[in-house]
Design brief:
This protein is mostly helical. The chain contains 4 helices and 4 strands. The protein has a two-stranded antiparallel ribbon. Strands 3-4 form a two-stranded antiparallel sheet. The longest helix has 18 residues. The C terminus is likely disordered.
Length: about 120
């Protein structure tokens, strides 16, 4: 494995890693129906305005337009990526954020490590 300093970002490899992770989880214990695929071109409600609302780069917004683990907003049914840490369903959260329903807490959207699309609103 090359040292971290020699690695470069690959959009396609990153998306493939999300697909692999979600497939692994579906094979292990998730119902396949909780993995939701975006329409061609990504989720229509994740737009340039989303970039402004979240303060993210175009690269991050592009990744947010990829597949998700469905969020029912029912705490008893939500899929945990780690104990107490839920997958963020951005296609469902973005409308709530853009209308001001959700706001960052102490300048952060995350209540746990945001790696691999894991996060919790709080």
């Amino acid at each position: 494995m090359p040292p971290l300093s020699e690695l470069t970002y690959s959009h396609d490899a990153c998306i493939a890693a999300f697909h692999d992770c979600y497939s692994f989880l579906a094979n292990m214990y998730l119902d396949e129906s909780v993995v939701i695929e975006p329409p061609e071109g990504g989720w229509p409600n994740i737009t340039a305005a989303t970039k402004k609302d979240l303060g993210k780069t175009e690269t991050v917004i592009s990744l947010l337009r990829q597949p998700y683990i469905r969020n029912t907003f029912n705490i008893l049914e939500r899929v945990q990526g780690a104990p107490g840490c839920y997958f963020a369903d951005w296609q469902a959260l973005v409308p709530l954020i853009s209308t001001g329903y959700f706001r960052p807490f102490r300048g952060r959207w995350w209540t746990c490590t945001p790696h691999f699309g894991l996060g919790a609103m709080g």
